[in-house]
Amino acid sequence: MTQYTDTTRPTTLPFTAQAHPEEVFGEYVFEVTADTQVIEPVQGWTLRLWPQARLGDGTLEASTQGGTTLHDLLTELEAQHVRPLGPIHFKKHG
């Protein structure tokens, strides 16, 4: 059950579940809280938001497209009033 962000369109909360979940692709996975109903795309990152979260508003997967850091992502999300909740998990692929 996933809701994807797009590099050109915002993602709206609450998330709407989709029928065909895919495996985790993100390098980083963490729950988020959001004071907004719209999360704008973040340049340099591919994002996927899951509607499931234990305590937050959703779970965010993030994969860098290169040239940006996790700190850059968190700064951009904070500017949108989206904050990590709990630990940020690093997933190594390959």
Task: Please write out the topology.
Blueprint: E1 3-4, E2 11-12, E3 28-34, E4 38-39, E5 45-50, E6 58-64, H1 70-79, E7 82-90
Antiparallel strand pairs: 1-5, 2-4, 3-6, 3-7, 5-6
Characterize the structure shown.
The protein is mainly beta and 94 residues long. It has a domain at 26-90. It is 11% helix and 37% strand. The chain has one helix and seven strands, in the order ββββββαβ. The longest helix is centred in the last third of the chain and has 10 residues, at 70-79. The protein is globular, with a radius of gyration of 12 Å. Residues 1-8 and 14-20 have low confidence and may be disordered.
| Rg (CA only) | 12 Å
Specify the structural class: mainly beta
Distance between the termini: 23 Å
- Count of helical regions: 1
The strands making up the biggest β-sheet line up spatially as 1-5-6-3-7
Please tell me the overall pLDDT: 77
